[in-house]
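Bench notes, afternoon.
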Amino acid sequence: MSSTPRKKLFFRLLFLGFCTLVLNILTSGCSKVAEENNLEERADGLVYKIGSKTPFTGIRIKFHEELEGRRKAYEFHYEGGLLNGPSETYYLHGITESKGEYIVIPQKGSVKHGTFYSWRKNGTLVHKKSYKHGELHGPQILYHDKWTEEKREVVGNGNQPEEDAIVQEEIHYVNGLKDGPYERLQRDGSLLETGSYRNGQFDGEQVYYFPSIRGLAVKDHLGFNRPGEFPASAEGFTRAKARANSLYESIPLSRNPEKKPASVAGFDADAKLLTIVWNTEQDEAISWNDISKPRPKYRRVWQNGKVIKTSWHDPQDQRFLFQKNPSSGLSSQ
């Protein structure tokens, strides 16, 4: 046989070997993906392919029955019959419902480890939870159901990214127990509650704040609302003060012999009166920053999970109203 036919035979065999290798790789890869109806969990707690004697290693998937099974419901990674690796679940309309990662620990089995996220059906982020070997550990964050249309359009109405989400509550855990400072925030980012935990119990000072002022209105000397609303902003407050001054000056002394002031009232998002933020007897220099800062509603002091003192404040935090000590009862000022 001449050298030319030998070379041709060599390259043919090389090509066939390469094709066989690629086919084996593809076949091997495909065999590691199994749908839910081809798997079963047995008495030993491990997952197997039906008919197999070897615990399943690969990706377990399931599709929603609706839409002719074209939308994935979940995807879990397994190793040796146990959850081990990334996991992700999906809503019917295609966006992610939750995702995180599992690891296998001897004597425990599959446990959550690292960061887990979950989203609402509308795409807004619900939780960011941190786990260590199956227990909550680190910051646990709850988010408000809020997402501007402008930012939503950027991601194509998919899942809200963490940087766009608005924190509602953040609590720290250590080995499964609440431990350290926590805070709850309103939708505008202002404080609603602060405090701390120790070994899973309240400990130290807890402060609850009045809701944020979301709108302003002017009241006359009799306390009745006058027509017109003003935004809860520096400009809105300036306009409301000017309107209150104008109203006060326009009322004849015969109708207001006691010279009661007109006032500016603050309301919450549901148009519920929160407090009188300013009146015409007060200094004009009082600014929006002065009245829009967090205003404590009550303070509690905890020790080992028990309240040892509670005090309440008026909406303007200008005076202490009363306090309660478990041992001495109520006192007021």
